[in-house]
Write a structure and sequence with these properties.
The chain is 50% helix and 11% strand. The protein has 23 helices and 14 strands.
Length: 621
Amino acid sequence: MEKNILKNKRRNNSTLFLVLFVIMFVVLVGGAFMSRGGLNTATNIVSTEPVEMTFSDVLRRAGEIKTMKIRDNVATGQLNDGTKYSAVITYNPELLEKLSKGGTTVSIDTSKGWVDYLGTWVPILMGLFFIWWIFRGMRGGAGGLSRTLLGQNPTKIVTGKPKTTFKDVAGIDSEKQELSEVVDFLRDKSKFAAVGARVPRGVLLSGEPGTGKTLLARAIAGEANVPFFAASGSDFSGIIVGLGVAKIKEIFEMAKRNAPCLLFIDEIDAIGQRRSQNSFNDQDREQTLNQLLIEMDGFSNETGIIVIGATNRPDMLDPALLRPGRFDRQVHIDLPDMAGRRAILELHAKKIKMHEDVNLGDLARGTTGCSGADLENLLNEAALHAVRTGHKMVAPDDIEEARDKLIMGPRKIRKMRPEDIKLTAYHEAGHAYVSTVYADVTDPIHKATIIPRGRALGMVQHLPIDDKVSMSLAEIRANLAIALAGRAAEEIFFGADKITTGAESDIDMATRLARRSITTAGLSNKIGLVAINQAQTFGSRVPLENASEKTAEMVDAEIKSWLADAYTDATRILNKNKSVVKKLAEELLKRETLTGEEIREIVGKKTTKKTTVKKAKVAKK
């Protein structure tokens, strides 16, 4: 009902302005037309059509003119023979004196008609009315200008029993447990009041995109069986000062009428950014933030409203917004671990026809770093691939194709030269063989492929056994050797002058791993237990901090030393087993893709016996 009233008001105001604009246009155009003689209001003589005369005709036939009536620059009258005339003349006192001496009766009409008055006063009145309407809307606050211009009420997503519950949220069990108190308070707050406990008035959900912040907020409302209001932080910003404050008042008024309820503000950093003493160009956003602070913890605390905010950048929020009494509980949602990824995959797999050979456990192991949204998209891509290939159910091949597309990008159809394909096969064979040598230290190899995807011409994938929270020095050294094994294979089998730019991403990854291990993890004996480059500017690269120029030079030298040792290790391993590496490369050229089992079968078990000795040598470096 309230929404219909606002729509009617906006429609009536728009109609009023349209009518006034049309009237003003007609009056001005009509006045201009009449002033040019389109309507003959200067004479009451009713006879034949008047003769149009030019100014030259008036000068030439001045002695023949009997009467002349002048209004503005239009002259009308009669000639001596009774013929009516009209002419556009230029006011000239000498002409009027000449006509008077010739016997012409001359009269000048200086009166103003209603058209002239309308043409003068209508634009003035329209301007005054518009100014009055603007100030009336600003004084009206939430019921004034905001309702007429940007009065879009926040959407009431669900009422009664929402469809989303905690059963629809998987992979974040600890976060659900943290928010169970909010659900209990919305269901029955009397048991908290009996003990004297104060339930958080606001909960801030933070985390990477796609981790389920919005879904979790919906699930809280569903579990508590209360109304759920949702808005975005950008909804409270407008081009007219005061609209953000009005919208904050409006959404909290609606929430209070439906309390107890849940109010969800997504991307709250759009209005909750840290205030600055030198901020003169963003006063409207700061006023909006001030109003939000008042509404969340003002003079009336017992409102029955729990505010949930979501953001990817909690470090940008104002401290006043995070203090107890407002967002007094902060829940960070991490990317799911392996158990969480499997639970998410099982949840979404219920909606898809899956083949019995699909192993969701292996899929969870191979999707480290994926969010819940990524996993849902992976299964959807697998289903789409199954439809394209004519499968009735999602098969393991569909899952593998979707996983490769998610990690490496879509498959590229490129016309490659035979020598480039051969070099890529030996490059990936070098990675694969060194991976089998260090299998007891690093993650086991999953597959090797020379099918181009994204920017990569090929790739060797590893499948983690479980989630890791740290890496040992031996594992770091082994990963560096694996990363540089592709370049080493190019040099061994094709010569130093035939190496290519294909190892660009490998060198970049190895450099970043070595730099992080040396500067932040304290794994270098030369640099020692010193944290360097701790303060990184967000989204940009900065030089080494907390370090002198001499220390920076030592860091660079140590990184080069680590990478040189890793390249030496990879070269030594490949030189001792050139025949096996060559066999791997030839099989890749034939089949394009080799699984981990096929690679281990080609390599043979005898390589694993040498691993312990080589790993020990690596760990001492």
